[in-house]
Specification:
Blueprint: H1 3-17, E1 28-31, E2 35-36, E3 39-40, E4 42-59, E5 83-87, E6 92-100, E7 106-114, E8 123-131, E9 134-140, E10 165-174, E11 180-187, E12 203-204, E13 212-221, E14 224-239, E15 242-258, E16 264-273, E17 289-291, E18 297-299, E19 301-312, E20 317-339, E21 349-373, E22 376-395, E23 398-418
Length: 419
């Protein structure tokens, strides 16, 4: 059965079982006639989060990026041409089912997808079941704080954000004091940690054999929460044909504070080594570790943070201000490749031996949003980012010590509609 047939069948079943909606539910909601403890034994819902993603690139070389990803800026590029695009690929569809067992235990299952798999193709976002303090399936990685998200129109978020989704087995519970919550999980290892060409051909991908281990403690109140989390990774790689491993670890501190007027302050701080695969602006670029001039392999250190504030002028008109940054570095690298023309060097890719490399990403956003009614938001946003790269080492028997930077500016706009 294809996806269109499945959605059509779900719609028919929904309206054949029950024709009314309930306060707080999605519009398309179905409940069973039998109940346990005055609650329906089973409930299902189909939800749609529709989003128009529009953006106008003023300058900066992100014309081919659907999101404002500072890490994708080419500091050696010169194309500052303007670009205007719109799409609906960020629209999300989800199906949720809730079931109460004979013993009164609640079970929940969610499947969610969007159309951001390339050229509008469907992509799986979430698919998990939750019961008895266990969550099994694919959801937000436990190293991040899934409750946090600055209310922005562009869909990348601050460069140090942790919004990766992975298959996992997670257990969560409270201490005697219900305001304290702990979470532990085994997360699927990220296998594309060495995909970028700067370290090839010496370094190659290798199969991972251990899950990533995470742990978190949250203090939750009616005004929001504070959360501390950590991660421990064992990352395998192949260097000069020999398989070995290195250890990665990291820590985050995050939180949100909300007022009665819905104003809210959010923040997250992160630091560690070998965790770049989790950071928004460099995820998937292969920057978790690197070979050193001593012949070893080190985990790359990185740190960053972001903060946002949302202010409601009135119940329908609100604005967001967001700042973020990320920095990572490689000290005493054995070698790396620069895509830059050097004097008297006709080759674009330049081999640099015995050097250092660091990169800094900064990010700022201001937007204004209007909610004409409860389920719709219209927004206009100004996005600005700066990428700075510093590198040194020997190339063609000449010593390099340079810093390059490039900024980008984008105007994002669109609407979000929840059904």
């Amino acid at each position: 059965m294809n996806s269109n047939s499945f959605l059509f069948l779900f719609f028919i079943l929904t309206h054949s079982v029950i024709s009314q909606t309930y306060e707080g539910d999605r519009v398309l909601t179905v409940r069973s006639h039998d109940s346990i403890n005055d609650l329906p034994r089973a409930k299902g819902a189909l939800g749609i989060n529709m989003k128009l993603n529009g953006y106008y690139d003023v300058y900066g070389g992100l014309q081919d990026s659907e999101t404002f990803n500072i890490g994708q800026i080419n500091v050696f590029g010169t194309d500052d041409s303007q670009s205007f695009k719109m799409d609906m690929y960020q629209t999300q569809v989800f199906i949720q089912g809730d079931y109460i067992t004979n013993g009164g235990e609640n079970m929940k299952a969610i499947v969610e997808f969007d159309f951001w798999g390339g050229d509008g193709h469907m992509r799986l976002r979430k698919a998990y079941v939750e019961f008895n303090n266990w969550q099994i399936g694919q959801n937000w990685n436990n190293f991040g704080d899934e409750v946090l998200w600055p209310n922005v129109m562009e869909w990348e978020g601050p460069p140090s954000g942790i919004w990766i989704r992975t298959p996992h087995i997670k257990y969560f519970n409270t201490f005697k004091n219900q305001q304290w919550i702990y979470e532990v999980s085994l997360e699927a290892p990220i296998i594309d940690y060495i995909s970028l060409g700067e370290l090839e051909p010496l370094v190659e991908e290798e199969n991972q054999v251990t899950p990533d281990l995470t742990g978190a403690i949250k203090y939750k109140r009616e005004w929001g929460h504070f959360r501390f989390s950590s991660i421990l990774r064992n990352i395998r790689y192949k260097l000069d044909g020999e398989t070995d491993n290195f250890i990665g670890y990291g820590f985050t501190l995050s939180g949100i504070y909300k007022t009665e007027r819905k104003n809210n302050l959010q923040f997250q701080l992160i630091g560690g080594k070998g965790i770049n695969a989790y950071l928004t602006s460099v995820s998937g670029l292969g920057f978790d570790g690197y070979p050193t001039i001593e012949g070893s392999f080190d985990a790359a250190p990185s740190y960053g943070g972001w903060i946002s504030y949302e202010y409601y002028f009135n119940p329908k008109f609100h604005s967001n201000l967001v700042f973020g940054y990320t920095k990572y570095k490689f000290d005493d690298m054995e070698r790396y490749i620069l895509s830059e023309d050097l004097p008297n060097d006709p080759i674009d890719d330049t081999l640099v031996l015995g050097g250092d490399y660091s990169s800094y990403h900064s990010y700022g956003i201001i937007n204004f949003m209007y909610d004409p009614f409860k389920r719709m938001t219209i927004g206009l946003e100004l996005d600005y980012g700066l990428k700075e790269v510093s590198y040194s080492g020997f190339a063609n028997d000449a010593y390099l010590d340079k810093t390059r930077e490039r900024d980008a500016m984008r105007i994002s706009f669109g609407f979000m509609f929840f059904l």
